[in-house]
Amino acid sequence: MYHATLQLLRVTGLVLCLTSVIAAAPARAVTLLRDADIEYALKQLGAPVLRAAGLSPNQIRILVIDDSTLNAFIVDTQHIFIHSGLLTKLDTAAQLQAVIAHEAAHIANGHISRRLGNMQTARTAAGLGMVLAAAAAAAGGGQAAVGLGLGVQSSALRSFLAHTRAEESSADISSIRYLVRAGVDPSGAIEVQDLFRGQDALAESRQDPYMRSHPLSRDRLRALQGLVAGAAAQTAPDPAADYWFARAKGKLTAFTRAPNWTLRRADGSGSPDIANIRKAVAYHRQSDLGRALSNIDAAISARPNDPFLRELKGQILLESRRATDAVKVYSAAARLAPREPLILGGLGRAQLAAGNASDALKTLEAARGRDFSDTRILRDLATAYAKVGQNAMASLITAERYALQGRLKDAAIHAQRAEGALPRGSGPWQRAQDVLSAAQRAARR
């Protein structure tokens, strides 16, 4: 569906940030589904499990990849990637928390750290581009994909990221302990593994990528069943976890399934406000603005302090060419969640559409300061700089966006342009140097 040539696409509502993989032959890009509401829900579900693993929920991001296959994996110690196909396949919050616990165990047990070697840190645009290029290979990308700056073929990179059976056993033991410690029903771990039973008999090309990186054997499954049985955990239902799971899954399917499919199922969402969210998205995708606004307003009435509902309303208005109204609604959302970069990004986008380039520049700089990995924020920020006449900064931001996307030749062109116009030794000038250095290293490989 997607090619290695990078572009920024949108399925109405959810922003698809495509991070390309440099390829000698056609390769598959990793496609992140960035949505503040869904990412907040995943953070709420993951926080107790991560804390039980001795990890900080504020330092590990749980991100969704647009892929219908079943997979979840790590490529560094700061991100857990979950395929949209797996998220929509799971039935309960406990199942999703079991997936998070298992990946957290790989991080806590050092299974990826020992293999990272010289991989650059993800704290720069080029570094995160490397992480996402590795994620593309782990997700089962095309042949001959080259991880940015790693210089290895996708088959080798998948082997690099695949866990051994010993590591899987270790992660199973740890993950059950984390779930019990977090008060989560550990039987969700068995239910997740049941999704993959029988896949070990399939040819590798027919297996879900989860099986290729998380080998499952009958012995391991029996051992996992024994661990769960031995845990004897007394877990009470967690209405908050159930709510956030239903909301994340409901909103994701509303954006990725046909609107009529959503409308037939919305009333069974488990909560009236989730039903309204799903209907608002479905009607928006059918260009029925009246019913979309009616439903999102009903959800806001039920949860007036929920910033993500106002963000969705702002998005609906902006995509319906009502930019001035969108600015007002996004501003209300930003007041409720002033540190949420995706909401700030939406506000900046609306301000640009409304012709307020100076306001947009301030807002988008604040968004970039909290999340430099969103290529759409970077694109809009470059536009804002260009509109206010700061062309050198526009070139720098464009260079960083291309670096994040893996387009280092294009990044170098814009970085050189920025370097020549920015004050030597300044912070922006040094950022341009960082991009040029990454491009030069990649060219030597």
**CATH structural fold name of the domain at 9-231:** Zincin-like
CATH superfamily of the domain at 9-231: Metalloproteases ("zincins"), catalytic domain
Gap between N and C termini, in Å?
Answer: 29 Å
Overall 3D shape = globular
Oligomeric state of this protein: single chain
Q: How much strand content do the residues show?
A: 5-15%
Widest sheet: strand ordering: 1-2-4-5-7-6
Question: Helical region count?
Answer: 22
Class computed from helices, strands and strand pairing: alpha+beta
- Percent of residues in helices comes to 55-70%
Low-confidence stretches: 1-28, 117-122, 141-160, 201-208
The SSE order reads EEEEHEEEHHHHEHHHHHHHHHHHHHHHHH
What does the largest sheet look like?
6 strands, mixed
Radius of gyration: 22 Å
What key phrases describe this protein's structure?
22 helices, two-stranded antiparallel sheet, globular, 445 residues, 62% helix, disordered N terminus, Zincin-like, six-stranded mixed sheet, alpha+beta
What does this structure look like?
The protein has 445 residues and is of the alpha+beta class. It has 22 helices and eight strands. The chain has a domain at 9-231: Metalloproteases ("zincins"), catalytic domain (Zincin-like, 2-Layer Sandwich), CATH 3.30.2010. A hairpin with a 4-residue loop joins strand 1 and strand 2 (15-19). Helix 8 (187-194) packs antiparallel against helix 10. The longest helix has 18 residues, at 165-182. It is globular. The two termini are 29 Å apart. Mean pLDDT is 82; it is low at 1-28, 117-122, 141-160 and 201-208.
